[in-house]
Amino acid sequence: MARVSQEHLDARRRQILDGAALCFARNGFHATSMQDVLKEADLSAGAVYRYFRGKDELIAAIVAEVLGEVRAAFEEATRQSPPPPPDALVASVLGHTLEARGYLSVDGEPAFPRLIVTVWTEIVRNEELAEVLREGYGAVRAAWTKVVEAYQEAGMMRADLPADDVARTMIATVQGFIVQQSLFGPVPVEVLRNGLRALMSMGQPSGGS
Description:
single chain; mainly alpha
């Protein structure tokens, strides 16, 4: 029997994850059945269950993959001296993440923002998924904190405020932008970049704290 190549296995796994992501974005986690995933991925039950035992493993794999990509992008930024400014960096990472999954759409709109909101609502009920998200968030936050520390060391950002506070705020900005996209429809990532750029341009009033 011919051996199945790693490339084939990776492509099949990608096919399953994409099918599940579309189903979750379209109908939510609980209204989606494994049969829905099989139909969307156009695969047999045996083919899918070879990779994932059920919906919980599917959604956890999707979350881990996305957060891993985001963390890697910010870690790459720390290898630049200094890193790109926050407006450019956030727009670049978010834009890449959205673009990488731009082929996934629901009713003609990007599926990724809706999928992310679905994940957030599910963690209230699913402790294993919540743990995956906590670990991924912690890694992203640590990567962002290193970026902020690099800004401070380069004199690009005031150094008297905790770097972790800045990291949390930037993450919250991205999360809020994703929620807006999910609720109100697609918005170019340049909108977020421009907004951050404007906020960064504000001067500190005399005597301010």
